[in-house]
Amino acid sequence: MSYRLVSDATLDLPLDLIEKYNMTIVPMAFNLDGQEILHYPDERNMTTEEFYDALRQGKLSVTSQINPATYMEFFSPILEKGEDILYVAFTSGLSGTYQSAVLAKGILEEEYPDRKICVVDSLCASAGLGYFMNLVGQKKEEGLSLEELQDWVIANRTRIAHWFTVDDLFHLQRGGRLSIAEAMLGSALKIKPIISVDEEGKLFVENKVRGKKKSEEYLIEKINQTMDDEEHTVFIAHGDCEDQALSLKEKLLQETKAENIRITKIGPIIGTHTGPGMLAVLFMKK
Asked: Which residue ranges of the chain lie beneath pLDDT 70?
């Protein structure tokens, strides 16, 4: 039976890879100064550059989770074509979208009793989910069945390393990740928090360093310490700071065993909470 890979617009995966694996991506909304905008991977409604420019101008953005009706809207045409679905969701540790997808699955299974809908919590966020979906696409091309690939996703979802730092602490403060005092003091001292995602798919601050150079050195150190011995692909994700991402790529090629390095953009959904200047490395752990 043929099946379709589906994920949501938090994944921040380059469009060419989405098209390569024929993925369906469910859009997600953000509200920018009162205007609701649906974010798709092709940036049809607003480019990431326009979004970050708006943030720099002081505009405020908020996000909302995908509701069950939206999932049904995007799942139904796939099922009507006679395809099954493997939906890999944005981590339940940061959003309720996974639960919305589970509700939609229950309704649609009654309407399409001959179809299979597998909904899996990725425990991954942003380009970490994108990195994971790239691997999932590769596994599908290797010929894994829907059930085999679902088992592989569950077995490997906690092996995706997320390490990132941000430039503007006040975006983390607005999202409840830092207190106002911590954001003010950290900004004054040029403190860069080193943030990751734990095995429950939740964010945590592992360390704090001073300055961009130290933060990049920390990301490089994490790759050298924990990267898988065989999978040497690395994604570098950035919040509208491509020059910094390109510079980091050169350092990774020189100082780590990373081989296939892909640069990708942090879209408006995650960018709402991290702001301009976020820099992340995503890779598979040992």
From this structure: 1, 169-189
pLDDT digits (tens, 9 = 90+) for 97-140: 999 999 999 999 999 999 999 999 999 999 999 999 999 999 99
CA 6, 267, 163, 228 torsion-angle sign: positive
Tally Cβ neighbours within 10 Å of residue 166.
Answer: 25
User: Using an 8 Å Cβ cutoff, are 108 and 117 in contact?
Assistant: yes
Contact 286, 230 (CB under 8 A): no
Distance CA 64, CA 97 (A): 9
| Amino acid at residue number 203 | L
Contacts of residue 240, defined as CB under 8 A and 6 or more positions apart, other chains included, come to 48, 49, 52, 265, 266, 271, 276, 277
Q: Quick one: tokens of 66?
A: 């995908």
Rounded Cα gap, residues 223 and 163, in angstroms:
9
